[in-house]
Amino acid sequence: MFPTARPRRLRYSPVLREMVRETSISSSDFVYPLFVTFGKNVKRPIESMPGCFAESIDVTVSSAREVHSLGIPAIILFGIPEHKDEQGSGAYAHDGIIQRAVEEIKHAVPELFVITDVCLCEYTSHGHCGLLENGQVLNDPTLELLAKAAVSHVRAGADMPAPSDMMDGRVAAIRAALDAGGFSSVPVMSYAVKYSSAFYGPFREAAESTPSFGDRKSHQMDPANRREAMKEAAADIEEGADIIMVKPALSYLDIISDVKCAFNVPVAAYNVSGEYAMVHAAARLGWIDYDKVMMEMLISIKRAGADLILTYFAKDAAKILNQA
Ligand code: PBG
After folding, report:
1. Phi, psi of 190 (to 5 degrees)
2. Which atom of ligand 1 has the smallest separation from the CA of 202?
3. Which of 166, 197, 230, 261 could make a disulfide contact with 219, Cβ separation 3.0–4.6 Å?
């Protein structure tokens, strides 16, 4: 008790502050998302995500090189196909946008760990995450397509598929298909705890994946639910998920913390598009310090328990961390 105890003693010197710091962050914690589109020499700015672009495969390869050179170990790829249809067939076509991108990236930068987002929403004409019947997203018939997509990514050279669709049973379906295809040592990272969030707005503009009607509330989670996160995480681990993700990150730090304490698997957190856009918007108005707010957000996600962070800030943060 005061005056014997004086917590400030540990805060006067910068050296000591650093010595007793409880959490650290480095560029090796990050996964950088990239949006791949069709065409050649395309680098289309995503307006609500300054610094992010939809890029054709040739440009994506250069971006992948840059990411690797900054000490960021991994990327996650999202595809914007030229044609969309009811079945989202571009998601599992052997010459689909992601399959071709993976092949070229792994050829150019083999050391870079390539994760692929597995979902149908970027490939369906209606923008929903699965097959539709009477306006409902069908669960079981969608599983087979997701499994096909994951296997086709891995066949092209992807290091880890990451299902983001939130269908029940998709991790088991993907695990079984990978094992049957001879890929039993390829891990799966599931978007295990994915909320139905307004923070995905800018991403949907980027990936052109806004649902043409309705919303994703029949499969993504209700932001009000905390215990349900445990149920989703447990189910995915039981089905064979190697890494589980919580998404979004900043409004869900309690969930990251709960999941980290309850399960013995690595936890990823997705610092999503809306979280990125808000910081840029406020910084542009001169209302906050971009670098400082970014670093504080990232350390808070680490502190909550995330082992890895998917973030559009990865390159900016790595530049700062690499200088230090
Ligand atoms: C679905 C997917 C989404 C995001 C990642 N994967 C969008 C959604 O569920 O509507 C959002 C990522 C972000 O907002 O940064 N393929």
Report:
1. -100, 140
2. 14
3. 166
